[in-house]
Task: structure prediction
Amino acid sequence: MTDTTQTERTEARASVLSSALAALPRPALLLAVLIVLLCALVIAFGPVRALQATVNGFVAGSYTGLGAIGLTLVLGVLKLVNFAHGDLLVTGAYFTILFAWLGLPLPLAMLTAMLATAALALATEKIIWQPLRLAKAGSLQLFLSAIGLGLVLRFTVQFFAGSQVRTLGANVVTSIAIGPLRLGTLQALALVVGISAMVIVGLVLRFTSIGKEMRAFADNRALAEVSGIDTQHIINVTWIASGFLAALSGILYATAIGSFNPNFGITLLLSLFAATVLGGIGNPYGALVGGLVIGLSQEWSTLLFNARWKPAVGFALLILMLMFMPQGIFGRAKRRS
Amino acid sequence: MSCKIGRLAAWAAVSALAIVASAQGAGAEPLDLKIGALLESTGPLSELGPPAEKAINLSATVANKAAKDAGVEAKVTIVSADSQGDPQAALSATRTLVDKGASCIMGPSTTPESISVLNGITMQRKITLWPLASSTRLRTVKDDGTIYRPVPADDLQSKALVKAIENHVGKGKAVAIIFRNEPYGDALSKSFTTDWQAEGGTISSTISFDPQQESFDSEAGQAVDTNPDAYVVIDYPETYAKLGAALVRTGKFDAKKVFVADALSFAKVPDNIPPEALEGAYGVAGGSPTGTDAFKAFNKLWDEAGGVANASYTANSFDAAILCFLSAVEAGSTEPGAIRDKIRSVTKDGAPQFTIETLADAVKTAATGKEIDYVGVSGAFRFKDNGDPSSSLYDVFQYQGGKQVKIEQVNVK
Amino acid sequence: MSIDFWINVGVLAGIYGIFTLGLQLNAGFTGLLNFGQAGFMAIGAYTVGILVVDRGWSLWLALPAGIVLAVLAGLFVGIASLRLRSDHFAIATIAFAEIVRYTLQNAAFSGGNQGVLGFDAEWRAVSDWMLPWLATIGLGAYTQLPLFIVVWLAFVALLLMMKGLQATPWGRVLRGIREDEDATAALGKDVFAYKLQSLALAAALAAVAGFFVALNVTYLYPTVFDPTFTFFGYALLVLGGFASYGGVALGSVLFWTLLEGTRLIETSLSAGQQASLRFIIVGVFLLLISRLRPQGLLGNVNEMRVRP
Amino acid sequence: MSGQVLTVAGLVAGYVPQVDILNGVAITVAKDEIVTVVGPNGAGKSTLLKALVGLVTPKSGRIALEDKDIAGLAPSTIVRQGLGYVPQRENVFETMPVEENLEIGLKPRRDLPLRLRLEAMYALFPRLRERRRQMAGSLSGGERQMLAMARALMPQPKVLLLDEPTAGLAPRFVDLMFEQVATINRSGVTILMVEQNATRALAMSHRGYVLDLGRNAYEGEGPALARDPKVADLYLGGLHG
Result:
């Protein structure tokens, strides 16, 4: 009996997928705060510097936010703290290198890499996560497995590809001028892809049958089961989507940033988690907006402090948000019965 | 508890037996030299691992060929271990190298690793350590003459940078410093600031960035916004690929105003760095290497060997291993202390000079016990008492068409 | 020769053991997912280093000061974030540890990027005094042996202390909190205060571990205290067994034997591949252990779940 | 066994290998009946329903829905065979609007038209129509219970399993809830219910079972069982105060 109660409590305590539209007040509040801050920065540092920092914040945020969308799905739907997610991004980028080396043209190599990473994510479900779930593994065992999987993925990539710096060879220096402001062309692409991915995932979750089932599963797994939802199917779909999105963001990251090695996933990982939690676990809009909020706050902070404090600013923001807005920007507190 | 200690002891005993079984008569002919390579194969600096590994392996190939050509019975084997870029892991890694019989240890790349390895192991065993770290802090520790740095320390290099900027931009100008927030960038930026201001120059901005961030556009913007006469960039290629792209994207950046420190000195600009970020940029490299035949020969060797592209400090790693080898030949021993005591005899000012191309002759001469002067790929080595290179000659180079071209030499004190 | 290597493995196992006793107290016995342990360790270690180098304190006086500061940090973190949900608490503590690390790297008082060096003279004196004494019983050749002995004496003492504490009413209340927080609160126990004490005590243990890290590495540098330290701590905790102090000792020895022992694998691979292979093996091992023996080697299957 | 919609025989089940909560339960439910299972705390009432719907895997015994053996199947499969289940707690998707909850409920029967089923539910529970766009998490206790039942009724189950439908409700809603259950039954739904509020539940049931320590203790017609002094003494004593 205690078993069930505990799982039920787990689910009750986790904030889950929710509709962005229905949760307007908190995002609106956040938007207001951001606008006030931006105005203050414009007054203090002049419009060009403040707005350029804002543009940079959007770019930095899009890298984190896009990566966090896949993570938030697994965290929200499967309640799994997937510490290997960053390494799935790496796998996606290196699959691209592999397929390009095998002779595929780059765009096709990228697509194949996304499919391959999705297949890999599904394979981890079959080989690792499903058996652990059936054995009723606790949260620490799952966490440990995720760390182990991350090590295996990252160092398998490194074993075959080496740890030297790689590039996908895209032109990363061209930029678009908007008045006195500059935005890198590929950075703009990253931002567009990030927002598109967010909207697509959001719409799928909101309106499609599988999306509704995923939300139901995330909300209350036992109830989803007895409502006739094929839960294993939902789990598989979630992994496929997560792997695909991870590869998409890994490839975009590798392309837009232009230079990477197998460590980039693990260095990005804590930011991904921060964006996920900030946005409200399980919400794709939240993941991207969470990423943007971190990006903005970090880039804005460079107007005030030396840039080397950037990461610390991100973590401080995370702690403050957890204390004062624990459900995240788009998260919804679940009432306990 | 006792059972755990017992287990440990059992392990230890097994390992000890293995070592005894494989041990060979020390100092006996022919020379069987093991050179340890402490590589950052994993961890935050893992991009440094593969090029360093290749450089040291190349040195063994070159040394073995030279020994054969010289008819000297000496063999070099490289043993390597992963320092993970972490002082604690570097300790374990070094112990495995020592267990494998390493007489010298090449690397590691950072000051914390170097000091912890020195204090923990190498100093007591008189094993020479050849760190690629340039912090002056390394000088402050007691090393019993075991540290030899194949790279110039910050204080010399910062003076070379000052001279190069004065020659190409002018005295008393405004300079923006951009550095990677690590011991290397931090220390060199501080010495440069002091030296530049002492010469009447101004620093328009000092920007340090966290290497683990994904974009550096704000940092780049801050650097160009002050509209400096020159930029000093202290960075590794991995992050400069991102930072340089961001600098170019500002639209207000002129790579010809850039002066890079030695970690961004390559024969050929690596693929991952956008050409616009370095084309026309100046840089300094210690010991007068660029443009020498040895430098060209090394780069040819590198390209022929295939594998990873050339990167920073590979020539320094290569030279360090060759120096260890020549010292062992000179000492006629692989005993670490004996090698340590001969290093100055193979880098003797005024003795007959040899380079990578005449290495066989160098081996032949050294085997007779005569002093020699090995002029490395990265330049001549003049070690001071503290093991730092004292060479006052620096090449000022410029990247032209993606290649390093020597412009002039400067002399610093 | 290789004995040196294994003594070093033993030193690491002992240090991580002390570090993980705190995690076991928090996660295993109180149900708190403390992921900021590396931060407390850094505070302890840096306090010692800075007091000795900058203020001229004795190393032995600086150690208690480091512990006190780590405890204060534990109380601060606890008061700020213990009311958070458990998974948020985990993330908040990790963020705290990272802020500590970045502060140490960027601030002037901590030596910034250049770290803190030269605080261990008094320990070296002790070590040098022990070596000839060890030599008389035939153990003198191993320079790390004094540190090994001191670390393990401290570890065993602290382990026994923690075991003893667990048997007291205080320890039973903690376990009650892990089992059912609401029920424990209903019995009139101030759950928050108990959790705070648990966290502060773990921070103290982290500070002791940090002191030994400093002696081992001889150099205080921020990256030594990155979150990986805490992850390794949890890995060996789960390996040894949940809610078992003896498991911490066993887990630590096994984990470090594996992690460092894999360095000795001889292959004809390149150095980079060999290094990668090591971590692939460790990763596979972590996957296997959580699959085959989820409760850990000395753990009890009924205690393996942390309340989220 | 003809005429029986649900037949359970010799059912043994539990959560952990060593401990069986159910030790050979046998019940039958005929078409259009309300059958109530009562018993003291820990008798295994909730476990019985969970075993029927597949959330707890039976170790032995037979569960037949009409003629099909459903023991050991996955919950989603069992539900598709025609069993509807309303858990005692956390029985709605709190982060989803009322209408989406109902839509999810229809998953086992994709052949039924959504519009018509929604209309049928709104007709049965007019309150839900008013709240259709509202998040289920913001509903009152009684409304949640209605939504939970409506969700389970969406696919027109052959038997509806109710786990303590009145638990945690304010007294004035308890009457309402029993009325609702009666209404649902009159609309042609067979009901198997587990209740703490035993006397009231038995009084409105066609038949009843008393479970104790995971075994059948008594069975009979609902009202008669409620009046049975032995049953009242042993099992109903303090339960409905």
Remarks:
- The beta strands of chain A are 175-178, 181-184.
- Confidence is low (pLDDT under 50) at residues 1-23 of chain A.
